[in-house]
Amino acid sequence: MRTIDKLYVSLANRKPFFSHGWGDPQLLEHILSTDPLRLNHGPAAKVPSIEIDWSSEPTPAADRPSHQIGRFQSPFRYEWSPRGGGSNRGARSKNERIVHTLPEPIQEARIQLILPPLSKKVENPPLVLHFAATGDEGFARRRMALAEPLSKLGIASAILENPFYGSRRMPGRDSSNSATVQELLQMSRAAQDEALALLRYFHTMGFRRLGVTGVSMGGYMALAVSARHPEPLAVAACIPSHSASPVYTEGILSSCCDWQTLERTNPFADRYSARELLGHVLDASDLRHLAPPPAPETCVIVGGRRDAYIPAYSTAITHNLRPGSQLHWIDMGHVTSFILGRGAFVNAIRESFQRLDSYTNGGGQSL
Question: What's the rounded mean pLDDT across residues 233-240?
Fold first, then answer.
């Protein structure tokens, strides 16, 4: 299984990650010097609300799910104060506020909403928000592998397209691989903020049974968002990591990082090697820096025993951080789980809603 992972990573990642280096060194210094418990995971209440412009596809037959495409402006905004003083790295005034938003060409976000067919219509249907795996652009893969099978179970889906992916690629880009470390951090935080705004939006639309799911990086996103959301969510995290750090410094994706450029542009070469610095910066994403979710027992995790991308210990950490959660191991690698593990992922989503139902109303409306 690991051999397949190694073969796939060599074919799918012809363009390296971080080919343009680190990004803003002042932001990196801010990350390294700030308590990670309060660094970059603000509560959902601070994320602005959104309005969505919907366009419907032709009305399907009664036994087919309906599709809608929605567009909205990303609510992502990260504001911080640089440290004052006489740093030789060009420190700004200590009273200055720095604001990060997504680049203007990719601020418009897209989702695809998939509702169950009329023949499967139930009162108060559950709705699960799907996050993208690394390199998963557009909607098609998640729609066919997960959303359409879920629609047959009466579960609605909302598929979010990540910033820097698909129609949200930066102009002129021919790859979704993050050009800088800062870009990877922006993508993660922006997708989380967009998801929190979407969950609030769908709640106002009348969806009361809400969940989040994702595979690989998407599984991490689902866990992070559930910790930032004020109400319990059904959570199905499939082959997730507890942090981006082991993925890019230990797992097979580390072979796809442009280490030569990262070493050459390392703004803290007097303190860290490029690999050490990347690990420290990405440690800001560690789920152990987040408060526990409101109902950890509504979480179902699927791990791959032969995964060359995600170390098994990292997936186990996500389970240990959610007391009462369920961990299912599948005897597969990372790539084979995308192909052969879809049934396990669908079952995990269904089980997570059953657990949410049990938590909220003693098991009523179980699927």
Answer: 98
pLDDT given for residue 114 in this prediction = 94
- Amino acid in the structure at residue 363: G
3-state class of 223 per DSSP?
Answer: helix
Residue 271 buriedness (CB in 10 A; 0-12 / 13-18 / 19+): exposed
Instruction: Kindly report the CATH class assigned to 2-361.
Output: alpha beta
Note the pTM of the prediction, 2 decimals.
0.92
Is the distance from CB of 336 to CB of 4 less than 8 angstroms? yes
In 101-230, which ranges are E strands?
108-115, 127-131, 156-160, 210-215
DSSP string, 293-306: PS-GGGEEEEEETT
Count of H helices and E strands in the chain?
A: 12, 11
Share of the chain above pLDDT 70, in %: 87
Domain boundaries, the chain: 2-361
* 234-238 and 299-304 strand pairing: parallel
* Rounded distance between C-alpha atoms, residue 284 and residue 229, angstroms: 19
Q: How far is the C-alpha of 286 from the C-alpha of 87, rounded, in Å?
A: 28
- pLDDT grade for 262, boundaries at 50, 70 and 90: very high
Close Cβ partners of 182 (under 8 Å, ≥ 6 residues apart): 22, 23, 24, 27, 28
Residues of the chain with pLDDT > 90, as a percent, come to 71
Residue 300 pairs in a beta bridge with 236, 326
Q: Residues near 262 by Cβ (< 8 Å), separated by ≥ 6?
A: 18, 21, 22, 181, 274, 277, 278
